[in-house]
Amino acid sequence: MRLAVTRLDLESFESLPLHARRCVFWEVDPASSARTAENAIFGDLGAFESEFDKEAWISGLLLEWGTCGQVAVDGQTGHFVGTAFYAPPGRVPRSRHFPTSPVSADAVLLTSIRSEPGFEEAVPILLDSVVTDLVRRGVRAVEAFGIVRTPAESRSPDSPPAESLPHPEDVGELGALESISGELSFWADEAIVEITRAMHDSPQSDLCTECIIDADFLKDSGFDVVASHPRFPRFRLELDEGLGWKHEVEHALEKLVVMAAIDLAGRERSASVPVGRRQR
């Protein structure tokens, strides 16, 4: 399967996958979104859907800040099969309501990376494209809010039922992040209820879990935890370290290619100069 990644522009907005085109979980301040507790419990995402607001958000960023999204394209069909969105934290209203906010002033916030079913390999490719773009623009770091998924969110059909899982007291302290979601994967549903109840009065109880990046993925991709939390840890990737070397290598290679081309052109010019005639 061949995938290509390109920068998002307004011309391609209509080609975005439906959820990516409509969901404004990050882009709209939750205080302006009227949503009842009953809707939150049953997972009604209607309050997050506004194609107009999503397009306006992208348009504003493209005009004032520059590229704010990367899209993965299936080379066989031309369909968009993955998206990544990022922006200065001041342009992401939802970020202010996370328990591990605020995002560092020197960082760009990576809000979401997601792919269509069957195209999961697009996710790390999209992340590489985001990092490459930000390094070239001189951004110092990228941060992201991760989500430690509950057993109900991450359990596969073959996983054991909650009743057979150990109690939280048997797996250590809640706040330990040595294994980000490894802990929660063993907790009983009762423990998750307690966590959710503790956050119920916060705007963060309204969630679109599809638009929050998996904490394990961020950890495995080289991000470091800078603000720990049992549910929403905040991660950071220094772009002058880690993947930052990639840009330096590319720049060095480009410079070598240019120098080689100049040298070759000089040699060709020298060879084309006619040799003076030998006088008799």
TrEMBL record:
Residues 151-170 are annotated as: Disordered. This is GNAT family N-acetyltransferase.
